[in-house]
Design a protein that fits this description.
Rossmann fold; 8 helices; 7 strands; alpha/beta; single chain; disordered N terminus
C-alpha cells in the first residue's frame, strides 16, 4: 500500500471487480471498544437493495460516498469541516472501521455512516440513481506491476457504474501518490462524456483534503501527490 490511509481495492472475481483486497491487521483494544459501543449506531448493514439515505442518516442532506477510508484520518477531518453533509464510507478492513468509529466518538461526529463491505457492490445495489453529491477515492491501491494494472479501481467500466449515481453538479475527487495511476485517472475520467475536469489537468489539492502524516513524510522525501477533480455535467 502506498499510504497508511490507502484504499484497499480492486481484485477481479467471477462477478466483476471489487473495490478492495483484504489484508491482515490487528484490531486494538480502543478500536474493538469503538466497534462494540459505536458500531450499532454508525454502521449500516449491507443489503442488496436500494437504501433510503435520509433514513440511514436520520436527515436529508447532500451525501458524499468515500471508497476505502483506511484508518479514517482524512474522513473524520473532512466530515468535521462539513457538518452539513452526510458521509457514507465503505471499508472492509476491521481495524480501519474501528479506528474511524473511535474518531467519531472522540470528535463527536454525527454525519458519518460506515458500510463494512465491498464498495462496488454497495454502489451497484444500495445506491439509487442521482443519490450522490460527491465521491472521494483517496490513495487507492496503485497495483504497480503492469500485469496488475487491470485491478485498479478507476477504470472505464467502474466509472460507468458510478456516474449514474451522481447528481448533476456532483464531483468526483481522486488522489494518488503514484504518477502512472494519476495519469490513468485523468485519462479515464476525461473520456467519460458526462464528466468535465475542473482544472486544465491535475487539480490543486482542495483545502478540505488534509495531508496525512504519511503524505507529509513522502513530500519531504520529494514524492509527488496528484489530485484529480471532475464534475458531472
Amino acid at each position: 500500500m502506498s499510504d497508511q490511509d490507502s484504499t484497499p481495492e480492486g481484485v477481479p472475481h467471477p462477478r466483476g471487480i471489487r473495490s478492495y483486497v483484504r489484508r491482515a491487521g490487528r484490531t486494538t483494544t480502543g478500536q474493538a471498544k469503538a466497534l462494540e459501543e459505536l458500531g450499532p449506531k454508525y454502521m449500516v448493514p449491507y443489503q442488496p437493495q436500494p437504501a433510503d439515505l435520509a433514513q440511514v442518516f436520520g436527515r436529508a442532506a447532500p451525501t458524499i460516498l468515500e471508497i476505502g477510508f483506511g484508518m479514517g484520518e482524512a474522513t473524520a477531518h473532512i466530515a468535521g469541516l462539513m457538518p452539513e453533509k452526510n458521509f457514507l464510507c465503505c471499508e472492509v478492513h476491521p481495524p480501519g472501521v474501528g479506528a474511524l468509529l473511535k474518531r467519531i466518538g472522540e470528535q463527536n461526529l454525527t454525519n458519518i455512516r460506515i458500510i463494512e463491505h465491498d464498495a462496488v457492490e454497495v454502489l451497484e445495489n444500495m445506491l439509487p440513481e442521482a443519490a450522490l453529491a460527491g465521491v472521494h477515492i483517496f490513495f487507492p491501491d496503485p497495483w504497480h506491476k503492469a500485469r496488475h494494472n487491470k485491478r485498479r479501481l478507476v477504470q472505464p467500466h467502474f466509472i460507468a457504474k458510478l456516474v449514474p449515481r451522481m447528481q448533476a453538479g456532483a464531483y468526483l475527487h481522486c488522489a494518488t501518490d503514484w504518477e502512472p495511476y494519476a495519469q490513468q485517472m485523468l485519462e479515464v475520467l476525461a473520456a467519460q462524456p458526462h464528466l468535465r475536469n475542473t482544472a486544465s489537468a491535475f487539480a490543486p489539492r482542495p483545502a478540505y483534503r488534509p495531508l496525512t502524516k504519511f503524505e507529509n513524510r513522502g513530500i519531504r522525501l520529494g514524492h509527488g501527490v496528484w489530485d484529480v477533480v471532475f464534475q458531472k455535467a
